[in-house]
Amino acid sequence: MNFTLPRGLRDIEPEECNLLENIRDAFTNTRKLFGFKLMEPSSLEFLETLEAKSGEAIKKEIYFFKDKSKREIALRFDLTVGISRWVASRRDLQYPIKLGSFGSMWRYDEPQYGRYRWFYQWDVEIFGPSKADSDAEIIDFTYTLFKRLGIEPIAIKLGDRKIVEKIIRKRTGSNNQSEIFDMLRALDKLKKKKEEDIINEYQAKGITQTNIKQILEIGKLSGDPNKILNKLEPDLDDVSRRMIETIDILNSRGVQGVQLDLSIVRGIDYYTGPVFEVFDVNTKDLGALAGGGSYDSLPEIFGRKEIGATGVAGGVERTIISLKKNRKTDFNRSGKIKVYVAFVGKESAHLASRITAQLRRSNILAEVELMGRSLKKQLEVAASLNARYTIIVAPREMASGKVVLRDMNTGNEENQTSEEVISTLITKDQTE
């Protein structure tokens, strides 16, 4: 008898299991800091549900079978499909819908370094109107989690499907969506294959050598986001506005390592706008530790066209490889009090974002307004979330270098500088 495991599977031994649990703890604590509620979608789905995301071709990449009632069933290959299906079925949820999950997945991929057929992922998603605020929240979460794990410096490489598609249409003159998808796939292979091989592959599909070369030149643009955007066509304002806003918010939060890399396009038939991947600078051979972006098309498939979505998933096995390279493996628990950061007007948004980020880095649970609601509505949301304190950032107080700290139990308010309010809340978190 053969008692070995099937190819691509392995037992998780005690040392690795300990690291896996440390990552789960860090994810749980970061999730709480950012206000993502925990859920776990079903491990089994109807095959047609998984095909809704990726088409019939997904059968080649997943485990599926017929159950005893002859129904076609499949093991989940990610967490996003199940979470999106569940959100689409619920019309009673308040925006933004912020959900996180941590669990095991199965894919019939070719096994390789850091990639198995049974593996773990962490995942966070935001559902609601498609906005730069949600993109920045997801990226900041990812940055904070890896910082908490001690994996730094990291490179956060941003791309944008809409920007790249508009450049392709302008430079090649093509309006054929199938041909444009092929050009995006060519771009996606730039860091994985030789340029000559890509040119030959896509010439065989009927794309001219000139057009392929133009596309690959786009993918070589990488580095400081503002410098890259300034090099591009002058008429991209309509599609680059969301990316510029996202970068501005990330700067206000002190997120480091952000780069613009137009070769990052990710799932061609899936993502609809901004996308990103995260790399450990010290383990460049490992590939991306996490990746995500906006995918408004998936809630629409499940019957909720009005819902936008953005999220990120991280590979636990690759993270474990990084942690084994003399990283720290003890992580702080999240804080006790909860704070809601409200703001009035766009001019107050960046300061509100910066305060929120500083609170979270100080291990205090903090939520920031993402939906652009009125102050009255924000205070109602803060109360519904059981926030102990609310910080109000408004133009009048900002003019004198102050913000308002409201005690949600007593209604008492104090005007303090942003530095003072953070210090006050750190002290309260330690003593209450």
Topology of helices and strands:
Elements: H1 14-34, E1 37-38, E2 44-46, H2 47-54, E3 64-66, E4 72-75, H3 80-88, E5 97-106, E6 118-128, H4 132-149, E7 154-160, H5 161-172, H6 177-188, H7 195-203, H8 209-219, E8 222-223, H9 225-231, H10 237-252, E9 258-261, E10 274-280, E11 290-294, H11 297-301, E12 308-315, H12 316-323, E13 338-343, H13 349-361, E14 365-368, H14 375-384, E15 389-393, H15 395-398, E16 403-407, E17 413-416, H16 418-431
Parallel strand pairs: 1-5, 7-9, 13-14, 13-15
Antiparallel strand pairs: 2-4, 3-4, 5-6, 6-12, 7-10, 8-9, 10-11, 11-12, 15-16, 16-17
Helix pairs in contact: 1-4, 1-12, 4-10, 5-8, 6-8, 7-8, 10-13
What does this entry look like structurally?
- The protein has 432 residues and is an alpha+beta fold.
- It has 3 domains: 14-151 and 281-323, BirA Bifunctional Protein, domain 2; 154-266, Bira Bifunctional Protein, Domain 2 (BirA Bifunctional Protein, domain 2), CATH 3.30.930.10; 338-431, Anticodon-binding domain (Rossmann fold, 3-Layer(aba) Sandwich), CATH 3.40.50.800.
- The protein has helices at 14-34, 47-54, 80-88, 132-149, 161-172, 177-188, 195-203, 209-219, 225-231, 237-252, 297-301, 316-323, 349-361, 375-384, 395-398, 418-431, and strands at residues 37-38, 44-46, 64-66, 72-75, 97-106, 118-128, 154-160, 222-223, 258-261, 274-280, 290-294, 308-315, 338-343, 365-368, 389-393, 403-407, 413-416.
- Helix 6 (177-188) crosses helix 8 (209-219).
- It is globular and about 70 Å long.
- The model has no long low-confidence stretch (mean pLDDT 91).
